[in-house]
Specification:
A 7-stranded mixed β-sheet has the order 1-2-3-4-5-7-6, with helices on both faces. Strand 2 and strand 3 form a beta hairpin. Helix content is 33%, strand content 31%. With 155 residues, the protein is α+β, with helices and mostly antiparallel strands. The termini are far apart.
């Protein structure tokens, strides 16, 4: 169900991103700009780019930076679930799997940025144990609320 992105997935990834109109709008982008920027990010070295499939269809994507060069934590740079599946509970299931299989093996501290206007997204992350840490500006000059999740490891 979750597997690394490969260049052969590009046409399907582009198609998936073009359907995410709400997320693109929230980012202040056209769907074409949103698509192009995220495809470029997926094909850049240094991150773990993942696709989630249900049968032959991409239903979600994620992009992880396993170890941030400044703070050493794992950053979830992108987690997008197909708009047609919002409100079904699938995002929760997919995130739990992502954290268990692709995040916990690498780190105990996770961070992500949420757009200030993305109230629904922020509630989702807070339900998953993330707390507000600070306001920040991304390398693309976008203002975000940085949320942090700290795992407690029992020895």
């Amino acid at each position: 169900m979750i597997r690394p992105y490969s260049v052969e997935d590009r046409p399907e990834l582009e198609n998936f991103l073009m359907r995410q109109r709400t997320f693109a709008r929230m980012n202040g982008q056209s769907t074409e700009t949103f698509r192009d920027e995220n495809v470029a990010d997926f094909e850049e070295e240094g991150t773990m780019s993942l696709i989630f499939r249900e049968g032959e269809r991409i239903i979600a994507i994620a992009d992880l930076l396993k170890k941030h060069p400044v703070d050493g934590s794992l950053w979830l740079g992108l987690f997008v679930v197909d708009e047609s599946l919002h409100g079904t509970g699938i995002a929760q299931m997919l995130y739990e799997r992502l954290e268990k299989d692709c995040m916990r093996p690498y780190q105990t501290v996770f961070r992500l940025g949420v757009l200030p206007q993305n109230n629904r997204g922020r509630r989702f992350w807070e339900r998953n144990g993330y707390v507000y840490e600070k306001d920040s500006v991304t390398n693309k000059d976008v203002r975000v609320h940085v949320l942090k999740k700290q795992l407690i490891r029992l020895e």
